[in-house]
Every structure is written in structure tokens, then in C-alpha cells.
Amino acid sequence: MPLAVLGLVLVALPFLFGGKYQLSILILIGISAIVCVGINLLVGVAGQISLGHAAFFGIGSYASAVFTGDYGWNGILAMFAGILITSVLAATVGWPILRLKGHYLAMATLGVGLVIQLLLIQEAGITGGPDGRAVKALTIFGLRVKGEWAWYCIVAGALFVVVWGAQNLMSSPWGRALRALHASEPASAAAGIDVHQMKVAIFAASAGLASFAGSLYAHALAFVTPDQASFLHSVEFVVMIVVGGLGSVYGSLVGAAILIVLPQVLSSLSDYENLAFGVLLILVVYLLRKGIVPTLRLIAVGGGR
Description:
Elements: H1 3-16, H2 20-45, H3 53-69, H4 75-97, H5 102-122, H6 124-127, E1 133-134, E2 139-140, E3 143-144, H7 148-170, H8 173-183, H9 185-190, H10 195-221, E4 223-224, H11 231-244, H12 249-266, H13 273-287, H14 292-300
Antiparallel strand pairs: 1-4, 2-3
């Protein structure tokens, strides 16, 4: 999908779904898609795994809450501070754990995420504890951002820039190095690629994107809780990229949209909502094993079966 088409879709959506509730869903999809683009670069392109990225999302949320609420910082400055803190933390913990592979790496990232969530719960004097805390409104050039329309425009613009950056990265020498890393680490090392440094860099970059999305989420909802950093939230992000398509930037968007919209559609089923949701996900993963976007691309070029 060319960027121009994405731009047109993002412009058209609020006119097609302009209700307050519908716009709030679109905002949530956009924020989740930003996280998923970063995770997909790490998992789908570089071949690593993370079950703790919701923790980085939570750090971004709380960074915005604390810096704006307790220190009076501008919201944009607080966002960048959150991104910096999260990226440095991810690089620091990533340096040792990214020497692990497979399920060992998955368990290590899970452990990091659980520790971060526990700290957010325990440090009640700063974070508000399990009940969370309020977040001050975001101001840009002295203007307070309020209302679903304004927030949709901000999130859609941020998503467009993130997708543009991810596409450029994937077509760059750095992106080709990440794909080579996924294909074969020994071959990548033999070609002169610093494998470990590359892993740490993409891990930190994807964590920074999660932090950015977390800051947007915090300001848009005006409230944060430790649940945003939970293991289940991390799993949701991973499921989104698997359903949409590993290694596909646009698959991240599609997966986020499906995982957020589908529960709303199935809510009328009451007690059977979770059962229907699980069955549909199993069918999607089983029938479209490469993910929705890669499978549709194969069909479009005559390669589908």
C-alpha cells in the first residue's frame, strides 16, 4: 500500500466514522498500530521476540504523567524524555538478554516486563499505585488538545510518520541488515554485521516507539494505570502483528484494527464473546498462516493457493 493511499484512508476515516465513540476506537487503533510497527520491526524483520513491550508502553505513559503533573513540563518535552528513558533502559537490559535466543529470550523479556509493571504498582507515591493517576492535558504551542477529532488528527499524523519511517528503514541498508540477521546470524556476522549491536539497536528503537505510543495514550485518555504495562497487553500486541502479518508494516495496522474492532463487534454475543473471539483468531491464524496482509499480497500476484 503506497503511503499516499494510507494518507487518503486516514483522512477519510473520521468522515466515515465520525461519532465520538467511533473516533475513540480509531484513536486506540492508531496508538496500538504505532506500537505494533515497532514490535514488527523487532520480531517480523529482525527475527527477535519480546513478551514485554507493554512495559515500555507503560513507561511512556507514566513518564508523561509524572513529568507534566509533578514537574510542570510541557507534554511534548515529557514525551521525548519518556522515549529517551525507555530507549536507554531497553538498550541497557537488552545488552545481556539479547544474547539469548528463542524461548529463553521470550522468558527474559517477559521477566523484564513483569518487573517494570511491579515497580509501577509498588511506587504508589509516584505512580498512584494500582489505582493509577490522572494525566494533565497536552498543550501544543499553547493550545490545549481536547476532543476526539483533535486527538484523531494527532494520532493519525503520528502513525503516518511512523509508517513512513519504517518503510524507509526497511528499504535502507540497515533494514537489509536486519533481514539478513533474521535469515542467518552466522552469515550476517561473516558479512561484517555486528549482530549483537544490531539486535540491541532495534530493540531500543522498538521500545522507544512503544513509549511514544504510551505517551499519546496517556494524554488522550487523561489517565494511566499499571494495567497498561501488563503481560496480557504485551501478548495482545504480539497477536496483532501475527494476525496482520509478520514483517509487514501495513500488517501491523491491519492486525491492530482487527484485534480492537472485533471485540466491539462480538460484544452482542454476551457470554460467548470470548469464545467467538478465540475461535475467529484460531481460524485466521490457521487459514492465513503468513498473516492477513502477506496472504492477500500473495493472492493478488497469483501466488495464493
